[in-house]
Amino acid sequence: MGQNIIPYGRQNITEEDINVVIEALKSEYLTQGPKISEFEHAFANYIGSKFAVAVSNGTAALHLCALALGVKEGDKVITTPITFAASANCVRYCGGEVIFSDIDPNTYLLDINKVRSLLESSPKGTYKGIIPVDFAGRAVDLEAFRKLADEFGLWIIEDACHAPGGAFLNSKNILENCGNGNFADLAIFSFHPVKHIACGEGGMITTNDEKLYKKLLALRTHGITKNEGEYVNSTKFANGFETEEIVYPSWYMEMQTLGFNYRLTDFQAALGLSQLERANDGIAKRREIATNYNKAFINKSFIKGQSGVVEGHAYHLYIIEVDDRLGLYNYLRKNNIFAQIHYIPCHLMPYYKQFGWKEGDMPFAEQYYKDCISLPMYPTLTEEEQEFVIKIINSYFE
């Protein structure tokens, strides 16, 4: 057992996945074909949103969201320091200013009370938006954040890369799916191999706002539209000469804004569709694994904190906090268990330190980083492998 490598995350590619990709590769379309919209509609139905826009990766999704919401130079946007850097970087891509706010040490999520204090300490209009992150798969209470955002006139981008299939309990004790568009203006997902749904690379944006949806479609493809109702130039220009009928030729298109090539391919979409069919089974397996970890470590003296069992948690990660994190990390690797650390606080990355962020600014995030370690968590992790992970951790401390 100890000779087998156990990573922290792993994709699950089945024969059915392989077959649908081969079928897509043999089709007439490798990109910009029918599989894209098919995947978008299926994903929107899964999440419960009105619209979905497939893109090349989660970072592209964040960038497009920031562009669609009009982030510009000098705009201040609040996010958590415990996230992958892309959650913050999308603001910088547009020239905006990232303002980090500390986490709740019990949930590892952006602390709404600290965000409120930040907003109340400045004149209204100082901040433009909030990017809360469903970190590790635990859903942010977006209903509460929506009320706060409305009070201060802010938009919300929900970074739900860790949480397709995740949910939180609203004020009526009803589960609200991550990314369903009921509270956030826009939400984004990632289809990186270690995520719940793997496309190799890929991402999705969900929203219930039709205007934002149309903006995203154009921004995804160079800012180009083929919608005749949106054209600016005349039919004479489009055709090259005056015609009796005021019609645009079928080849015509217009670039109306500066966009990007952030498209997903059809064979990636085909893989995503196949993976989506098993998404609920994958979530169920992740929650089973989390329950086992919780039982194994809940009363251990060497555990300072853990992800625990939380209703609606999607368990992209299962995290424990320990004093001797480096020692445990190295010991696990010696036993071919490749745990991971999520994440180095963004505000202490050298890039963000140039803006004045320093150690001590986010005490809860910084303490969390010193202690956290993500254990193997993926649907194909066997009971024997999980028992081995638990055994090795216990043997190190006991």
Automatic annotation (TrEMBL):
PANTHER family in the cross-refs: DTDP-4-AMINO-4,6-DIDEOXYGALACTOSE TRANSAMINASE, TRANSAMINASE
Family of this protein: Belongs to the DegT/DnrJ/EryC1 family.
GO molecular function: pyridoxal phosphate binding; transaminase activity
Source species: Flavobacterium sp. CFS9
Annotated protein name in UniProt: UDP-4-amino-4,6-dideoxy-N-acetyl-beta-L-altrosami ne transaminase
Active site: 195
GO biological process terms on file: polysaccharide biosynthetic process
Entry-annotated residues carrying N6-(pyridoxal phosphate)lysine: 195
Highest taxon in the source lineage: Bacteria
Listed InterPro entries: DegT/StrS_aminotransferase, PseC, PyrdxlP-dep_Trfase, PyrdxlP-dep_Trfase_major, PyrdxlP-dep_Trfase_small
Keyword list, A-Z: Pyridoxal phosphate
